[in-house]
Design brief:
Structural class: mainly alpha
CATH topology of one domain: 434 Repressor (Amino-terminal Domain)
Largest sheet: none
Order of helices and strands: HHHHHHHH
CATH class of one domain: Mainly Alpha
Number of helices: 8
Number of strands: 0
Shape: rod-shaped
Distance between the termini: 140 Å
Strand content: under 5%
Length: about 190
């Protein structure tokens, strides 16, 4: 059976050669060459696609806040917690206001400047030792003065505020009659 197939192929080639006038061999060589070129182009395309994917992964890692889709208020909070930074310290590191950092963390606004996004991404990559050096370079000794609650946020502070409000209110009510007497005396003196 194999001999029959081989003989048949040879006969078909001879007939094609006679019909095309000897150009069939040249066409076969061209077809083989085109297939090789196609295979090489396909491999090059696959290499380029792999390169593009790796560059995208690297870009997303290197610029954590590179685009609007990458921005996340929780990532900013995690950055502060990781280095135990106050919002004030982070604001000073980035060269923005305290309110700005507060609004970013609440998710009400986003950084508009790509430079700020790059700064945040750079801070994310720092080690704790590098962060301490960075803090010292901007004039901060540490991220927070005391760990734990912020001053004035405890129960005692809240009670003290209420007491202060009550005493201020009572002082105001005590002052009103005296002020009325003075106003009455002045009015009487004018007459």
């Amino acid at each position: 059976m194999t001999d029959f197939k081989t003989a048949l192929r040879q006969e078909i080639r001879k007939e094609i050669d006679r019909a095309l006038g000897g150009r069939a061999d040249k066409m076969r060589e061209d077809i083989v060459e085109l297939r090789k070129q196609t295979k090489a182009l396909h491999e090059a395309l696959e290499d380029q696609l792999r390169l593009i994917q790796s560059l995208r992964r690297e870009a997303s890692r290197s610029s954590a806040f590179g685009g609007a889709d990458d921005w996340s208020p929780t990532r900013l909070r995690e950055l502060r917690r990781r280095f135990d930074l106050s919002q004030t310290a982070l604001a000073k590191l980035l060269g923005v206001g305290l309110n700005t950092v507060w609004l970013w963390e609440k998710g009400e606004t986003r950084p508009r400047s790509k430079a700020v996004l790059r700064q945040v991404a750079a801070l994310e990559k720092l080690s704790p030792e590098q962060m301490q050096r960075k803090l010292k370079s901007v004039g901060l000794s540490e991220g927070r003065k005391k760990p734990g609650r912020k001053p004035g946020s405890g129960k005692k502070a809240g009670a003290a505020k209420k007491t202060a409000k009550k005493t201020a209110a009572s002082k105001r009510t005590k002052r009103k009659p005296a002020a009325r007497k003075k106003a009455g005396r002045k009015a009487a003196a004018r007459k």
